[in-house]
Write a structure and sequence with these properties.
Blueprint: H1 2-5, E1 18-21, E2 27-30, E3 37-39, E4 53-64, E5 72-78, E6 81-90, H2 94-108, E7 112-116, E8 126-138, E9 146-157, E10 165-174, H3 180-204
Parallel strand pairs: 3-6, 4-7, 4-8, 5-8
Antiparallel strand pairs: 1-2, 5-6, 8-9, 9-10
Helix pairs in contact: 2-3
Length: 210
């Protein structure tokens, strides 16, 4: 029962050892090394913002909850049971992937006059930090898996530590069972929606350049 519920995100990588006879009559075993599948979160660009905020926005620290910050896919089998997939993973750590994707999305939507990605030296007017609370595949209901993504964003002034604006975004996107690509596609849809809504919300704020 458990195996059927998690078949949508795991691949059984088990190669049967094939015995072959040499010319001397000896035996040798050959077992192919397991191959990992790697994926990247690449959300679509959001629509152009209604207005561009003044100044420079830098994407600051994006932190992922401890249970989901590794590269291996995580799926939820029961309310308190999660499992990581060794053979299917993100190419880069989710924190870096989501941080860079956020910078690209906000720049493409012209939400601020200038958007600087994480790790790039800058003297920003504003800093946007994020906390990824959940990033997993929900397999608790047999035959109805969901990609779950929850992110809270915090906006602060470039010279301050305390955020003056924050909002939590959550998405659950259904996908077809049995395909890692379908799961990643659903996570991309979730992240696309979150970033589009984030762009609209940031654009609607009344900000004055410090």
């Amino acid at each position: 029962m458990i195996a059927s519920r998690r078949a949508w995100i795991r691949v059984a990588v088990a190669a049967a050892a094939a015995a072959s006879l040499g010319v001397t009559g000896g035996c040798s075993l050959s077992k192919p090394a397991p191959v990992k599948e790697m994926f990247v979160l690449e959300p679509a660009s959001p629509p152009a913002a209604a207005k561009a905020q003044p100044g420079v926005l830098r994407i600051g620290t994006v932190t992922v909850g401890a249970s989901f910050r590794g590269r291996g896919f995580v799926y939820r089998e029961a309310d308190l049971k999660y499992e990581s997939d060794y053979y299917r993973e993100f190419l880069v750590a989710p924190a870096a992937n989501i941080g860079e994707a956020t910078a690209r999305a906000l720049a493409a939507a012209n939400v601020f006059a200038t958007v600087v990605p994480p790790g790039v030296p800058a003297d920003p007017d504003w800093v946007l930090d994020g906390f990824v609370e959940s990033l997993y595949g929900d397999a608790r209901e047999a035959g109805k898996p969901y990609a779950v993504l929850t992110v809270t964003w915090y906006l602060r002034r470039g010279d301050g530590d305390a955020p003056f604006w924050s909002r939590r975004y959550e998405r659950r996107v259904a996908f077809t069972s049995g395909s890692a690509a379908a799961y990643v596609g659903a996570q991309n849809s979730a992240l696309t929606d979150v970033l589009a809504e984030l762009a609209r919300d940031l654009s609607a704020l009344t900000l004055k350049k410090p």
